[in-house]
Amino acid sequence: MTSISSAPFSPEEIADEGLKPEEYEEIVRRLGRHPNKAELGMFGVMWSEHCCYKNSRPLLKQFPTTGPRILVGPGENAGVVDLDNGLRLAFKIESHNHPSAIEPFQGAATGVGGILRDIFTMGARPIAVLNSLRFGSLEDAKTQRLFSGVVAGIAHYGNCVGVPTVGGEVYFDPAYSDNPLVNVMALGLMETPEIVKSGASGIGNPVLYVGSTTGRDGMGGASFASAELTEESMDDRPAVQVGDPFLEKSLIEACLEAFKTGSVVAAQDMGAAGITCSTSEMAAKGGVGIEFDLDKIPVRETGMVPYEYLLSESQERMLFVAHKGREQELIDIFHRWGLQAVVAGTVIAEPIVRILFHGEVAAEIPAQALAENTPLYHRELLAEPPEYAQKAWQWTPESLPPCTAVGIEIHGQFHSWSKILLALLDAPTVASKRWIYRQYDHQVQNNTVLLPGGADAAVVRLRPQEEEGGRERGKEGGSFPHSLTPSLSHSSNCQSAVAATVDCNPRYVYLDPYEGAKAVVAEAARNLSCVGAEPLAVTDNLNFGSPEKPVGYWQLAEACRGLAEGCRELATPVTGGNVSLYNETLDSQGKPQPIYPTPVVGMVGLIPDLTQICGQAWQAEGDVIYLLGLPVDVESKIELGGSEYLATVHSTVAGKPPRVDFELERQIQHVCREGIRRGWIRSAHDCAEGGLAVAVAECCIASQLGAEIKLPLSVNDRAGESSSFRWDEVLFGEGGARIVVSVALEQQETWETFLGGQVANHWQKLGKVGKSELGLRVLTTDNQTLVSVSINDVSDRYFNALERRLTIQNTSSS
After folding, report:
1. Binding residue per annotation — 792?
2. Cα-atom radius of gyration of the chain, to the nearest Å?
3. Is residue 94 part of an annotated ligand binding site?
4. Residue 740 carries which DSSP code?
5. Contact by Cβ (8 Å): 243, 109
6. CA neighbours closer than 13 Å in the CB half-sphere of residue 331
7. Residue 97 assigned to a binding site
8. What's residue 239's pLDDT?
C-alpha cells in the first residue's frame, strides 16, 4: 500500500494544498509518518513555486551574482550594493499578480507593502518605489476596472506610507486580459551599521513576533499564487491580503530604531506563507531550529486553529531573533510605536520547526525540509523552437503593403506617416502615463530629482535621511538639470544620486525569448545611461505561464539564458528577484491561455555628481539633434519585427525582434554618459517602442519645442538603390542601440570631434530644435516632407490617450 492510498487526506485535499501525489509521498518519506492538517498546509505553501522556485531554481543558477559593488546577493530579503562614500542601497522587485486579478486595489496595495518590508528588514529606509504593470486592452471594461483599481491601490499605500512612487512602465495587450501583472520594485538607503540578515542564531535566544495582529486574511496566498487562475479562484478573495499603510509606516520606524540598538540578531518579513515561511527560513538559514507558541500570537479573530495561524498572510508582521536578555528593550520600542510585540518562541539546537498550540505540539518538521531541501524539477527543453515561434519568424516586411515617402495604404485606406505617428502616440502602451503618476506622491521625502514622464529613468538624490531640505521642483518635461536650484548647483560638496528603471518588452520575448530577454537588459541599461547613470546591478521578476507545459518551459529557459548573457555583457549582476509562474487563465472552453513571457528587469545605477544629469526634453531653440547608434541609412538593419508599429498599425505580432549588439551598446551608452558628464549633452532619450519618429516626438512633447529633422535619404535617388527599402522601417523601426540627444550649438564641434574618436560612424546629425510653432518636421535630403505635425496635436494624442479610453473614473476601492 502506498503512502498516499493510506493518507488521512483525500487526493482532492492534497491537491488543494498545491501538492502533487509524488510530493506527498516525499513528505511521508521525510517525516516517517503522515503529516497532520497543519503540517500538510505548511508543506503546501513552502513547496509552492512562489516560495521554493522548484521549476526555476536550476535556471537561475546561470545568472551572474557577484561583482565589486555587490554586498548582498540572492538569498536574502533584498540585494545590497555599494554606492561609495559609505552609502549602501538595498533594492528588490516582487510580484502580486494573482491577488491583483481578484481584488486589484488590495492586491496592488499589499504588493507595495510587501516589497517595502523586504527593504527595511535589511536595515534600509525605503526611498523610492517603481512599478511594472501589464493589462489587457484598455477599451475593455474589465481591464479599465483592473487598471483603475491597481493604480489606486499603489497610490493609496505608497502615498500613505510616505515613500515616493518615482517611475515605472505600463503595457496594454490582450495577452493580459484576465491575468494582469503587478510588479513592484523598491529602493532603500541603509541606515544601520550592519546589514540585517535573516538567519537565526544563538541557542536560547528569544523569537519575537512584532507588528500587526493575525487574522484569516490571505490564507494560503503562496499556493494561490502558484496556480492558474480559474473561475473558482477568481472568487477566492480570502487569499487576498488587506494592508494598512499607516501601520506599516510605524513598523518602518520601529524596526529601524530597533536595529540600531544592536539587540536584533536576525529579522524576517512575514510575507508569503506567513509564520510558516518566516520560522522555517530563519531556522534553515541559520542551521538551527525554532520553537514557536501560537498561543502567544495577538489575533484579530477568534476560534483560529493552527492551520489558519500558520498559513495566514496578514500584513505588516515581522519575526525577530533578539539577543537573550534584551527582548524587553525591543518590546518597549514597538509598544511606543503602537505596535504588537511579544516573545513567541525560542531558538533551539534541534534543526526543526516546532509549533505549539494549547500546550501541545501542533506541527514538527525539519526546517531544511521546508525551506532549503525542497523539490527541484529539471525539465526537458524542446529540441527546437515551438511551432508558434517558427511561424512568426517566417514573417518579412515584404508581406506589408508597399509604401512611399508620403505614406501607406492599408485595407484600401491611405494613411500618411504623420497620421501613423499620431496613432502610435495615442497607443496606450506608448502614450503618456500622466493619468497614472499624477495619482502618486512622487515628491514625498524631497529627494525626487527627475519627475515621472521627464526622463528615461527615475533619479533620486542620496542624502542622510535626517537631513532637511526644501522640496525640489522640476517639471514633467524633465528640464530640471539645467535649472538647478541654488542648493544643488552651488553646493560645495558633490551630491550623488541613484537612478532606477524597470523594463521589459514582452512582445520581443514572446517572439524570441532569448533575444528578447537580452534586449530587456540592454534597454534597462540604456535608460540609465540616458540620465547619466552608470548601470550597477539588476533585480528581476520572471512572469511566465506554466513551466509544466513544454512551450512555457522553453520560454522560461530561453529567457533566463538571455537575461544571464545580457547581465554578463553589461556587467550588471543579479542580486535577487522574484519568480511568478502559472500566469494563465482558462478560457470559456477550459483551455489555458498564458500571458506573454514577461521577464521584468529592475536596474539601478549610480550618478556620482547630481549636477551631471539630463532628461528627455529639448532644452533650447537652436540646439543640435543627434542620433547615436545605428544610423539612418538604406542598409541599416533597423527592424520592424515585433515592433509597436507592426502591432498597432497592422495588428500583427510577428517577425524576429531586433538582435542586440552588446559591443555597440557599451560604446553608445558610454558616449552618452560621458557626454552628459562633460556637459555637452543637454537631453537624451532612447529609441524604443515606435522607433526614431516616436522618440523625437516625445522629446518635442516633453519640452513643447519643435524640431526639424533631415534624414540622409533621398526620395528620388538613394531609395531606389534597394528594392527592399521601406520608409516605415526608417521612421518606426526599432533596435540598433539608438539614443536621440541634443547638444548646444556652441559645443557642436567639440562634441563631433569626440564622437568621431569614440564610435566611428555610429552617429548622425539629424537636425535642430526649433520654436513650438515649427512643430515636428521630418524631411529628406531633397526636402520631401515625411512627417509634419503640430506640437498641440502630438501633445493632445500623447497626454490624453488614457483618459479618452477610460469610462470608469472611480479609482477608489470597491
Report:
1. no
2. 27
3. yes
4. E
5. yes
6. 14
7. yes
8. 57
The rounded distance, in Å, linking the Cα atoms of 626 and 559 is 33
Distances from the Cα of 156 to the Cα of 165, 587, 812, 813, angstroms: 11, 32, 9, 10
Helical spans, DSSP H, in 385-482:
387-393, 417-426, 434-437
**Across 73-215, where does the E strand assignment appear?**
79-82, 88-95, 124-135, 165-172, 181-190, 206-211
C-alpha cell of residue 312: 495566514
Which candidate in 50, 442, 685, 762 is catalytic? 50
What integer pLDDT is reported at residue 479 of this predicted model?
43
Strand partners, 709: 767, 778
First-to-last C-alpha distance (Å) of the chain: 51
pLDDT value, residue 628: 98
595 by Cβ neighbours in 10 Å (0-12 / 13-18 / 19+) ranks as buried
What pLDDT, on the 0 to 100 scale, is given for residue 720? Answer: 47
Give burial (CB, 10 Å; 0-12/13-18/19+) of 235: exposed
**Separation between Cα atoms, residue 484 and residue 475, nearest integer Å:** 12
Annotated binding residue at 98? yes
Fold of 409-426+616-805: Phosphoribosyl-aminoimidazole Synthetase; Chain A, domain 2 (3.90.650)
Q: How far apart are CA 215 and CA 63, in angstroms?
A: 38
- Determine whether the annotation assigns residue 580 to a binding site: yes
Q: Is 411 annotated as a binding residue?
A: no
**Cα–Cα distance, 485 to 473 (Å, whole number):** 8
CATH of the structural domain 66-191+454-607, one choice from 3.40.50.1240, 3.30.1330.10, 3.40.190.290, 3.40.50.300: 3.30.1330.10
Strands (E), 544-629: 574-580, 584-586, 592-594, 598-607, 624-628
Residue found under cell 506599516: 248
What's residue 343's pLDDT?
98
Distance CA 546, CA 56 (A): 11
Whole-angstrom distance, CA of residue 349 vs CA of residue 224: 33
| Domain coordinates in residue numbering, the chain | 49-53+196-358, 66-191+454-607, 409-426+616-805
Determine whether the annotation assigns residue 269 to a binding site.
yes
CB count within 10 Å of CB 68 equals 9
- Which grid coordinates are listed for 429? 502602451
Give the model's pLDDT for residue 221. 52
pLDDT at 590: 80
Of the candidates 34, 96, 415, 670, the residue annotated as catalytic is 96
Q: Are the folds of 49-53+196-358 and 66-191+454-607 the same? A: no
pLDDT for 304 equals 96
> In the annotation, is 335 catalytic?
no
Output the CA torsion 607→608→610→616 (10° steps): -30
Query: Is 534 marked as binding a ligand?
Result: no
Does 205 count as an annotated binding residue? no
pLDDT of residue 457: 98
Catalytic annotation present for 378 = no
**Does an H or E element contain 357, and which?**
strand 352-357
Q: Which residues of 153-191 are buried (b: 16+ CB within 10 A; e: fewer)?
A: bbbbbbbbbebbbbbbbbbbbebbbbbbbbbbbbbbbbb
User: CATH for 49-53+196-358?
Assistant: 3.90.650.10
Length of the chain: 814
Q: Is 95 annotated as a binding residue?
A: yes
pLDDT, averaged in runs of 10, over the chain (814 residues): 71 93 95 96 93 93 97 96 96 95 94 97 98 97 96 97 97 96 98 94 98 86 52 54 92 97 96 92 97 97 95 95 98 98 98 98 97 92 97 96 95 97 98 97 94 96 60 41 34 78 98 99 99 98 97 98 99 97 86 95 98 97 98 84 98 97 98 98 98 99 98 74 79 97 98 94 97 97 96 98 78 40
Has 241 been labeled as part of a binding site? yes
Q: CA-based angle 348:350:352, to the nearest 5?
A: 95
So what's the pLDDT on residue 220? 59
